[in-house]
Each structure stands twice: as C-alpha cells, then as structure tokens.
Design goal:
Order of helices and strands: HHHHHHHHHHHEHHHEHEE
Number of helices: 15
Number of strands: 4
Shape: globular
Strand order of the largest sheet: 1-2
Strand content: under 5%
Distance between the termini: 29 Å
Length: 346
Amino acid sequence: MAPEHRRRGRARGVALFAADFTTYLVLIGGLCVLPGLWLKGLCAVLTGFTVGRLFGLAHDAAHDNLTSSTRLNRWIARAAFLPALTPLTSWVIDHHTRHHAHLRIRGKDTTWPPLSLAEYRARGVWRRGWYRFLRTPVGTGFYWVFEYWLPYLFWPRRIAVGRRWAAFRTDRLVVCGFVAGLWAGMTVLERATGDLTGAAPLPPPALLLFGVIVPFFVWATVSGVIDFITHTHPGAVWFADRAGRSPRDTLRNTPHIIMPFGTNRLFHNFFDHTAHHVDPRIPLHHLPAAQAELAAAVGEEMTAERFTAAYLLRLFRRCRLYDFDRHLWQDYDGRPTTDPQPVPGR
C-alpha cells in the first residue's frame, strides 16, 4: 500500500486521546452527581462505549502509530488502556507477538480459537455447555473476560510473559491503582456534590459497580463481538501449524466489516481491519483510504461483509467447530456448515 498511509502526526492523536478521556471523565462524573438510577445506568453504559473508543486509541498507540513520538505513544497506550483494566505489557505480548505474528494458528492465536470436533467431545458436559454459550451474542462479554482478558492480559502465566514479568507486574499494579483511585474519587465527588444536586448517594459498592464493573462488561461485550466478526468468517482458514499458511491468507482471515450509519468512525475505523493486519503501521485515520486501496488491488480475494444482526446470528450458527484437516466449519454434531477451503500445498 502507498507509503503515505503510514504518515504519523502528533496533534491528531493527542487530540483524539484528550477528547475521549475527557468524555470518559465527564460520564464518570455524571453517574456520581445525576439523580435516579436510570440516569446513572445510562452514564455507565455510555462509559462502556467510551472505554471502547479509548481502547481503540490504545491499540494504535501500542502499535506506535497514533502519534509520531514513540515515547508519547507508550504513555498514551498505558493511560488509554486503564479504563479497560488492561496492562500494556501483557497486551503487547499477546496482541503483537501471538495474534499478529501467528494469525489463525491453533495454540498461538488467542482471538476466538475454535475447538475441533474431537476436542469438543473430549470435554465434560459443563465445559461443552460453556463453549456453546460463549459462541452466542450474549456470551461474548463472558468470553472476553474469562477466556481472554483474565488468562492472557490480567493474570497470565509467568512463563508466557517471560523476561518482561517485572514490567507486567508494574503495569498491573498501575491498573489496580487506577481502579482504587477512581473509586475513591467517585466517592468524594458524590459526597461533595450531594447537597447541591439532591441526588441520593450510592453506597461505595454500588459506585464500584456503576463506575467500573458495568462499563468494563459493556466494553467486554462489544469487544467480544468486534473481535469475533473481524476474525471469523465461513471462508476463514485456521491452521494446526504454520505449514501451508500464506501471508495472503490475511485477506480472507480478517474480513472487512462494512458498518451501517457511519459507526465505523465511532470506533476509530477499527472495522477496516484487513488493512490493519496487512500493515499494522497504518494509523487509524488512514485506514479507510488504505482499505479502499487494498480492495481495489486484490478484488474478490479480500472478504467483505455488511454487518447486520442477521449476519451476526448466521456467523455464530455456522462457525462453531473447525475441522483443521479439511479446513471447514462444523456444527456441534460434526456436520459441515461450510465448504472446504483451498489451502495451497495441502
């Protein structure tokens, strides 16, 4: 793709971060001072979507392309990840060295890996039920929290982090300190403004629920859906190992999701995801142009889908288990739901 797509600037990235973090703080303040549980709940849900916007900026900054300064990118990434309770060090290890480097390779890529029929049948009834629940629209938040965030980002094994364990522990302590500081600040703000607003104060556990847990789970649900639709497709190919994998498989393994009503911009152009995987150096504001150039260059080789609720349900229905030998998707009884995908050399 054209080199100009990789141009970085400082002002745009800083402005986006400042705007989104300010919005986040305003919404947190709103749920402290506004009267009525429904207004507080609305602020909590909107905060969750703002956490998603901040996460998108952190994702770009961690790739060192949000601004032209590597040091500034690191600090923005660390700060923008805080509302999503994500330590920067573990994110870089998992997202850069596993997901990008080993896209759709079993045992390496941690983004929505499917089970084979044999692996599914070897599980007990409760673990099979859990797997089936996760691969539903209501299960995406639970997938993000318990199958991804907890084991890979917040509480990874020391062997997986390796020599960066000390840096990871520091980042995790910063996340915990952020939660403690946010909780204390919300408590102080609510008590200080209670007489002025007339709002009934919430007990501290409820403040933690509205200010941290609900926004986090809203974001986890949204993130689970986004990761699923941008990395799963009936024509996508998973590999048992690197043999037979081609760099051009990125074109079918990261579908371009065409979002309605301009919502791609709401999520900082994240759904132009094929271009991002082809060249992670492209900043988010150049992704639409890069995606259009890529589509013109490769044509039908790149997968593109329009997002609708029906499409999401169809995707969950067709992409349940994976046959790593025949390269096709199956249902829970082992019946194929897609045609075998061609894999050169196999």
